[in-house]
């Protein structure tokens, strides 16, 4: 597979997609959604191949579940694309336009990024999802999925291309890299000049590989070691409700709470209540193991002594680390040292503490008196998200359609030269 | 030299700088400007060492000029810092804040990037300049200069640190990597977790090395193969004034014009006028060599036949490539194929062509009827610039203080949990 040729075609397709108006893009999206529904048999047959191969090689049940497609999941993919079609188009807005003393009129206009590369793991529904968002923002997409989902991805991309053709559009606006070798993956990550940005969607290992090897700019989406700090003046009931929600509502997600910091002065009263809520009152199998520092373990003997590794750990499980702190300052320092820059929350009734926590905590999303689980494009009102950025460049936090665009300066003159 | 320890100190310093208010940051900047003036003798002595070493190894006169410091240049460095102090502080502004249906109030606040790494070549004035901008935007800075400027950079950074101490501030807000080995440079480019962004400031070779080797996010600043397209309806006098300005006003800069595209229908009349303006009417030594396609050479025999390489070349010299095009579409395709995404201009009196050129040309800055030389932070009204980004992520075009910041979401709740 000649990646440079594929990149060249993507660049050409990107110029085409950029030229489309809102109505044309939405018609394309509707046709691709339709093509997914019409391709159900083809997609299911391809997915069956992937599933059989995966079962033979002994893939775990959890991963098999993620790989499996059903008519309902295909309908969800199509619905997802239609939802994106219904969102406002981010492209073309002129954000500002001001005259300069020499009469030049300088404006900044929102434009597509160009070619977006997506590297994902064995979750075929991500393929349609990522295409929809990138295309709506005016971009061409190159997808690379894991080898386990290859047949499914090929069928899905074929359907998407068929939909584009039905709408009279350039089908190369979405392309799949079908060679799943490591060498091709590396070449893809170094396709500067053809790919404007790479977005890895998957676990920490995939993200690290992309960051390590890519020369194309990367948007790192991320792992979340999210903290909740229970301040001296916290309302206990509110704190327990929020902690329970942030820890147990869905354990496998990046905005789940993984670490608590509790003010020392309330530990004697609060920790037993915490144990009651997260352990005694939970169903079998959903009791939260609390790995705490020495002093907290002395107050609640059921807590497990934490090691240094616990402070930085994203459990994605019914586990939670817990540290006592003497002050807001100590709590913030602990969080800023061990967090992953995702989401952090303070529970407090103190005005100054709330403001200080918002100011000093270094993360994409910082909360007062709310669950970290809200860090999500849908919850933030973006309609959809391509991921949650934990880096500081370009986009930070949930990324909606706007994160898939850039700007360019447009300048109206009437003969100005520089003196 | 232990880069991890240096990175740890920079991270700590960044938290401190972020906590400073506008008045405190400006007082620090004033003190560092003062310290540069007071350190004149020390800086000049150190620069003399660098100059002697450079002369011995036979550095070219051009590079020696860039390396040399004088009392006037030191005053310029100090003045540059004071000018940055006078600019509005970009940090702390809440760009938007809106309630969600569940009562959460979600805002986006502008905050510093954290630790900015600057890699530059043998131009010691960049050191003070980069520090001023990064610090004003609330960041700590780690600088790495070329080995040729090591003594000068050490003296400058010592003065800056002395100024910070005089203002009662943490001096580690600016640090210099004094080990100029290639290995240390590579280690610096992989200091993820300690450095939030790397900005290379120098020639194409340096930028390529940083893009190739860095795992820390990079802002690519750029080379400029800038085009001017002379459309059918162009006013010839305006076109010639703009081309002369863009090509000859300063030949060594990235926003200088390097390539012309001329509509074929006006070639017979326009090309001789172009030759007159850029060759006959220029002083000896400032006559522009025009490397043109076959047809243009047939019209003006003094033009030199262009090769394929010319179309993509950033000459930084009294040279210009020239291609005829049959249409606006062909012109835009040529530009989008060979440009570096910097600055492009159309000279036209046609409304639809002006709009189409602005829409379809893929570059950081796209002009109608003006010189490409205006792509500059000062000219755009930013007060100062850290470079001109030719990438699409984070910042595109001239980068002022705002490009040295990021945002974080701040969320005010009153007990919200996710259902």
Q: Helices, strands, pairings?
A:
2 copies of one chain form a homodimer.
Chain A: H1 3-19, H2 22-38, H3 40-56, H4 61-67, H5 71-86, E1 94-99, E2 105-112, E3 115-120, H6 125-136, E4 140-144, H7 150-166, E5 174-176, H8 182-188, E6 197-201, H9 204-213, E7 226-230, H10 236-248, E8 257-263, H11 267-280, E9 289-292, H12 294-299, E10 304-305, H13 308-311, E11 319-325, H14 328-338, E12 343-347, H15 351-360, E13 365-370, E14 387-389, E15 397-399, E16 405-416
Parallel strand pairs in A: 3-4, 3-6, 4-5, 7-8, 7-12, 8-11, 9-10, 9-11, 12-13
Antiparallel strand pairs in A: 1-2, 2-16, 14-15
Helix pairs in contact in A: 2-5, 2-7, 3-7, 5-6
Question: Could you please describe the fold and organization of this structure?
Answer:
2 copies of one chain form a homodimer. Chain A is globular, with a radius of gyration of 24 Å. In chain A, helix 2 (22-38) crosses helix 7 and helix 5 packs parallel to helix 6 (125-136). The termini of chain A are far apart. The first copy, chain A, has helices spanning 3-19, 22-38, 40-56, 61-67, 71-86, 125-136, 150-166, 182-188, 204-213, 236-248, 267-280, 294-299, 308-311, 328-338, 351-360, and strands at residues 94-99, 105-112, 115-120, 140-144, 174-176, 197-201, 226-230, 257-263, 289-292, 304-305, 319-325, 343-347, 365-370, 387-389, 397-399, 405-416. With 419 residues, the first copy, chain A, is α/β, with parallel strands linked by helices. The longest helix of chain A is centred in the N-terminal third of the chain and has 17 residues, at 3-19. At the A-B interface, helix 1, helix 10, helix 15, strand 13 and strand 16 of A face helix 1, helix 10, helix 15, strand 13 and strand 16 of B.
């Amino acid at each position: 597979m000649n990646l440079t040729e594929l990149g060249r075609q993507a660049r050409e397709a990107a110029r085409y997609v950029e030229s489309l108006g809102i109505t044309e893009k939405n018609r394309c999206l509707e046709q691709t959604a339709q093509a997914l529904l019409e391709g159900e048999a083809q997609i299911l047959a391809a997915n069956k191949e992937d599933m059989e191969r995966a079962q033979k090689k002994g893939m775990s049940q959890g991963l098999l579940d993620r790989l499996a497609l059903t008519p309902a999941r295909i309908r969800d993919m199509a619905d997802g694309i239609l939802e994106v079609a219904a969102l406002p188009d981010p492209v073309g807005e002129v954000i500002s336009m001001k005259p300069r003393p020499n009469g030049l009129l300088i404006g900044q206009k929102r434009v597509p990024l160009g070619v977006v590369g997506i590297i994902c793991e064995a979750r075929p529904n991500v393929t349609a999802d990522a295409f929809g968002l990138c295309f709506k923002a005016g971009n061409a997409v190159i997808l690379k999925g894991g080898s386990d989902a290859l047949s499914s991805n090929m069928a899905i991309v074929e359907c998407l291309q068929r939909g584009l053709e039905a709408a009279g559009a350039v089908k190369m606006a979405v392309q799949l890299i079908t060679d799943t070798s490591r060498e091709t993956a590396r070449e893809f990550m170094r396709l500067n000049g053809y790919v404007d940005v790479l977005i890895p969607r998957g676990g920490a290992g995939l993200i690290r590989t992309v960051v390590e090897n890519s020369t194309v700019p990367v948007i790192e989406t991320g792992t979340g070691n999210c903290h909740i700090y229970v301040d001296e003046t916290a309302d206990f009931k509110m704190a327990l409700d929020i902690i329970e929600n942030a820890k147990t509502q869905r354990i496998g997600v990046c905005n789940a709470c993984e670490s608590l910091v509790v003010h020392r002065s309330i530990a004697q009263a609060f920790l037993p209540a915490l144990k009651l809520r997260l352990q005694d009152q939970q169903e079998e199998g959903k009791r939260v193991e609390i790995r705490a520092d020495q002093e907290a373990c002395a107050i609640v003997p059921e807590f497990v002594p934490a090691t240094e590794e616990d402070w930085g750990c994203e459990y994605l499980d019914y586990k939670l680390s817990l540290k006592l702190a003497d002050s807001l300052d100590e709590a913030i320092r602990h969080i800023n040292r061990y967090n992953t820059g995702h989401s952090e929350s303070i529970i407090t009734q103190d005005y100054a503490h709330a403001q200080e926590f918002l100011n000093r905590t270094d993360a994409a999303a910082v909360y007062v008196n709310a669950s970290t689980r809200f860090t999500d494009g849908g919850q933030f009102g973006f309609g959809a998200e391509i991921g949650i950025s934990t880096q500081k460049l370009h986009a930070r936090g949930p990324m909606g359609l706007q994160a898939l665009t850039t700007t360019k300066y447009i300048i109206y003159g009437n003969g100005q030269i520089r003196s």
